[in-house]
Design a protein that fits this description.
This protein is mainly α and about 80 residues long. The chain has a domain of about 35 residues. The chain is built from two helices and no strands. It is rod-shaped, with a radius of gyration of 31 Å.
Length: about 80
Amino acid sequence: MTSITVLAPVKVVAPRATQWAADAFTAFLSWFSAHRVEQVQRQSESIRVAEASSVRAYAQRFASQDPRFAADLMAAADRHETGK
């Protein structure tokens, strides 16, 4: 005769604070991610403004000799600054 022993494991219940801790950590990660995206956008905007300012200064050097070229550079700087 053969006998088989089958063990039925007891269901493990998660500690009470795990759901709260998971929700808090998820909220923190969401806040951190949004904050980082905002910081990167501000940094890229400041870089675009500085680059546009540099192009405008370059355009001013050509304003008296070639006004059309200077106007094109100014328009390009405006477009670059606004990110379009």
